[in-house]
Amino acid sequence: MEQAPEYVIEMLHITKIFPGIKANDDITLQLKKGEIHALLGENGAGKSTLMSVLFGLYQPEEGIIKKDGKEVKINNPNDATALHIGMVHQHFKLIDVFTVLDNIILGAEDTKLGFLQKKEARKKVKELSERYGLHVDLDAKIEDITVGMQQRVEILKMLYRDNEILIFDEPTAVLTPQEIEELMAIMRGLVKEGKSILFISHKLNEIMEVSDRVSVLRKGKYIGTVNTKDTTKEELSSMMVGRPVQLVVDKDEAKPAEPILKVENLTVPSKLHKNNAVKNVTFTAHAGEITCIAGIDGNGQTELVYALSGLEKASGGKITLCGKDITKASIRQRSLTGMSHIPEDRHKHGLVLDFTLEQNMVLQRYYEKDFQKGGFIKFGAVREYANKLIEQFDIRSGQGPITIARSMSGGNQQKAIVAREIDRNLPLIIAVQPTRGLDVGAIEFIHKRLVEERDAGKAVLLVSLELEEVMSLSDRILVMYEGEIVGELDPKKTTVQELGLYMAGAKRDGKEKEEQA
Question: Could you tell me which of 252, 403, 481, 484 has the fewest CB atoms within 10 Å of its CB?
Fold first, then answer.
């Protein structure tokens, strides 16, 4: 009897080239049946590209793919599906106005005489969701459910197609700590059922917790594969970045000075429901201090920032910046008064994706005399400025300043926004999820820059969902829960557990919530 091959998937000597860049340079990756295999690397190391080759979205210039020991050709995602390979993308591929059930069966519909057999489909999806603990309302529309739930829909889509090899591309980038725990449990359950998982990530904690083996890529090249139980976070981070990385923020005591931003009784209506998203919030951000607003996603942080930055109107309260009342000011007036903003949604509010990198770098400054004369842009000055920032912030792209922003990796798009906003050198920096989707090397760099800004006397208002970032970067933590600030904590005197209780609404202003008798 023939012995079953050790590997369900082998990618051998894969090379993939894009204009100006070798995204994958002779990479070999082998996946065993029933394992969770993590693929680790910096932004732009070629992880997503490699997985897109496996899923048939790209064709490699060189190399072969084997499934169960036999060579296969994967020309498109339909070929991948036929081979039982499925993928959950970093930016979900769901149709907002369809229901959960319709999204799951889309493209794999069962029909009889041209009629959709929804009843059978519903039964199959229900069975899958119970078997794998993926509970989700099948009749809800995608636009009305949380990101964590949308991810479950993506996983159910793969299971509905009987996929055996599951690719997760940065699956935790948009999840809350609680949802991440649930996802890890789901992944373990899938492997118990005999599925094999490729898990792209650059979050070392998650990799250590859930994977069996880790393969590391750096700048498009394969560095090596290690057993998770035999390695450490420090070893993995230096394999990934090529040097030792500080995993903890190094900073002196804050020296808070005059107030830069004063928010008094701010109320912001919600777009989703009748209640207000921000309820009567009051706080001050001082020069020389990193004030952090922490909370689980969806507790009013987004609306608070929209009101501060002028993207939405407040319905009550007052905002003062550098002594000026900006409650009703336009976005440009706020910007000129002294506010820079690293937005939460980099695609929607951070970049014009079809502009070049250099055009994106001067979006808020093109009208300054450095960059225009008599209404005409000085293109030479713009390019020089962009090149300066590209070098300072190590922004990697195929064609330098003329790269179209859309074609850059997510992490490098983020670095570009951070570079632009910090370099404007204004008294207040509002940084929302500034390191979302970044690798350890880039996180270390951005944290350092934010601390430098603080030490140079800027007020930094950090809004973050990452508990570690909140604890290590902030000087003062304000916790938001259901639109209100429920506690002010000192990161040196609190614990992650206590912070978690405030974030979940179990604790308020130093008091445990009374048990409801």
Answer: 252
